[in-house]
Design a protein that fits this description.
By secondary structure, the protein is an all-alpha fold. The protein is 70% helix and 0% strand. Helix 9 runs parallel beside helix 10.
Length: 234
């Protein structure tokens, strides 16, 4: 009997609360709405500033996006670059939290805030583990990525583009040196690609070195080479 009475009381309480639950949320007054829009605009300006700073440090991304140069150099992921990434992530995170209050933003801007925050936190969190991955594997690396990038993205439409292309080719040793250093540091940490990956890595690298314009997987590379030789002999 007591349980029945309690259940009945709960049902009455729930029914009495339904009108309030179904009510439309209050519409912010114009002054509040203007304040939210202003904060959203400030946050978007901060994101744009951070994005432009990243682009200024990433000439390869500028080339991929079809933006103005420089297009005569590489984005070299060496230890100095990774340390700079860590520094910038820390600065971005401090500015984000110091300059913006989540509760002052619109729901959409709050999502953007959280995503940016998580991205910076992840960069900081993963820094100690930066050499716990494969700098080169059968799936990719500078041994194929360099040629793939030049073929797919570096357009040569005029003399300036050609000079940039030549300069990039001359800068390849710095990219390879950084990859070798990353491989060495990974090996010192005990992180090595699986044994089965070495043969495909070597095969892909040899095909790229011997056949201009080839920057794909070993199986596709071989077929491409055979087609080219066949067309030349015909």
């Amino acid at each position: 009997m007591r349980l029945t009475a309690l259940a009945g009381a709960a049902a009455v309480a729930l029914l009495s609360a339904l009108p309030a639950l179904a009510a439309e949320p209050a519409t912010p007054n114009p002054a509040t709405q203007a304040g939210i829009q202003s904060e959203d605009a400030r946050l978007n300006a901060f994101f744009e500033e951070a994005w432009q700073r990243d682009l200024a440090r990433d000439p390869q991304q500028r080339t991929i996006l079809g933006m103005d140069g420089p297009h005569d150099r590489w984005t070299v992921y060496d230890e100095a670059r990774r340390l700079d990434d860590l520094r910038i992530a820390g600065e971005n995170l401090r500015r984000l939290r110091a300059d913006f209050r989540v509760e002052s933003l619109s729901p959409t801007a709050r999502v953007s805030y959280r995503l940016f925050e998580e991205g910076m936190e992840e960069t900081i969190r993963l820094y100690p583990w930066r050499h716990h991955n494969y700098a080169v594997s059968q799936l990719g690396g500078p041994h194929t990525g360099i040629a793939s990038f030049l073929i797919a993205y570096h357009r040569v439409r005029n003399a300036a583009d050609a000079r940039d292309y030549v300069a990039r080719v001359a800068g390849i040793p710095a990219v390879i040196d950084a990859a070798l250093d990353n491989l060495r540091r990974s090996a010192e940490a005990g992180v090595m690609p699986p044994a089965f990956s070495y043969a495909p890595i070597v095969t892909a690298a040899r095909f790229i070195g011997s056949e201009p314009g080839v920057a794909t997987s070993p199986s596709r590379t071989k077929s491409t080479v055979l087609r080219r030789r066949s067309s030349k002999s015909g």
